[in-house]
Write a structure and sequence with these properties.
five-stranded parallel sheet; 4 helices; alpha/beta; Rossmann fold
């Protein structure tokens, strides 16, 4: 029986959508995959960071995106892969604002939830049906150790 999740060993020509690629892990991964020949599409809220990435990585593309907006995520997926999906979705978008219980801010907690958790669900929803219909596809979500073991000032961040 073939593996349900065979490793991607050759990135040449593979389409990869990295949501949350304006900095950090997302940008570094996008750069590394581009160097290995992947067709990289980067998304984030920062238009300038995305423009800089595309300038520095010829052949890549960018879509400004707020991952907390389900309709916008679906539109970007449909625009970039009409009727289909990338070979891989990597969700790296994240929001962090230090918070302790003494200064709980429900609005800020909701923002963490909308970006860190719901945004990932929106991205998965935008590609999963097409990946399943095609019979192949990879989804990877970047998370934090704060979800397993509380960290100082992570009242809002840890649960997401």
């Amino acid at each position: 029986m073939p593996s349900m999740n065979p490793p991607l060993l050759d990135w040449r020509g593979r389409s990869v959508w990295i949501v949350g690629a304006s900095s950090g892990i997302g940008r570094a991964t996008a750069s590394a995959l581009h160097a290995q020949g992947a067709m990289v599409t980067v998304s984030a809220r920062s238009a300038q960071a995305l423009q800089d990435f595309v300038r520095d990585h010829p052949g890549s593309s960018a879509q400004v995106l707020d991952s907390s907006d389900a309709q916008a995520v679906a539109q970007v997926a449909q625009q970039c892969w009409p009727g289909g999906a990338p070979d891989m979705l990597l969700y790296c978008a994240g929001h962090y604002q230090p918070m302790r219980a003494q200064a709980m801010d429900l609005g800020e907690m909701r923002l963490h939830w909308e970006i860190n958790y719901q945004g990932a669900l929106h991205a998965i929803d935008a590609v999963l049906t097409a990946m399943r219909a095609r019979g192949t596809g990879h989804i990877s979500l970047v998370a934090s150790v704060a979800g397993y073991r509380g960290l100082p000032n992570s009242l809002a961040y840890g649960p997401t």
